[in-house]
């Protein structure tokens, strides 16, 4: 049974502030994981129980499937995307009084059993895609549906990189990781020391929107399944005229410059009473 009153300790907070990421204990139990995996399959099979499709996949390569806003399509996936405990943990880490869903993303790396095409996720900072939000007060909760390790392409993060501002090297889709790493070593020097986020299914890693991260290929014959829940401070405001003005949430909600991002499509997960 999950304790919904539980919060990261002072030590956890200090770790997050120093390193730009933090890994929770298992907070999604096995029964719920089985259900989540079944509903992930439903969405991939085009079965949308709400009658609404997710936002189109930005890119769907054979080695990596990335599907935005599956919470539109499926009630079980939606329940996870707006999970109050995840929202509360994120608020604590962001040091904010409320957290709102920015968007969710199902991520599926099929493994060599299904495809021989392997996909990396290039090094990037999420905020490079979200500069239409005035401040980088956003955090991603990455929920492992399977055990993850270097072998199946777990995420890797560069500790402390969230303190460096936006970097020049930033591309989720880049497959030439060595070239990216040369650029990052030039900019970051000795700080470029990636660590793998190895977790058991049901654990959740949280990374700051400026933390550099990426992942290698899934070289196992089993899938690597997860949901990334991108969360922002409930106070987050729109900044017009950035290179991310084409972001789906700007197109959907059409905020005015300086306005708070609000609306039914951006549900609050947590609000301090
Ligand atoms: O799943 C991955 O390997 C990368 C996910 C990612 O970039 C994110 O959640 O921000």
- CATH structural class: Mainly Beta
- The CATH architecture name reads Sandwich
Task: Report the oligomer.
Answer: single chain
* Mean of residue pLDDT values: 93
In total, the number of strands is 12
> Over the alpha carbons, how many angstroms does the gyration radius reach?
18 Å
Overview features:
Jelly Rolls, binds 2-oxoglutaric acid, alpha+beta, eight-stranded antiparallel β-sheet
Explain the overall architecture.
The chain has a single domain, classed as Sandwich (Jelly Rolls), CATH 2.60.120.620. Helices cover 22% and strands 22% of the residues. The chain has 6 helices and 12 strands. It has helices at residues 10-19, 30-44, 75-81, 84-94, 177-188, 248-253; strands at 21-23, 59-61, 64-68, 98-109, 121-124, 138-144, 155-157, 195-196, 204-208, 213-215, 224-233, 268-271. Strands 1, 2, 3, 4, 6, 9, 11 and 12 form an 8-stranded antiparallel beta sheet that branches. It has a 4-stranded antiparallel beta sheet with strand order 5-10-7-8, covered by helices on one side. Bound molecules: 2-oxoglutaric acid.
Secondary structure layout:
Elements: H1 10-19, E1 21-23, H2 30-44, E2 59-61, E3 64-68, H3 75-81, H4 84-94, E4 98-109, E5 121-124, E6 138-144, E7 155-157, H5 177-188, E8 195-196, E9 204-208, E10 213-215, E11 224-233, H6 248-253, E12 268-271
The structure holds 2-oxoglutaric acid (AKG).
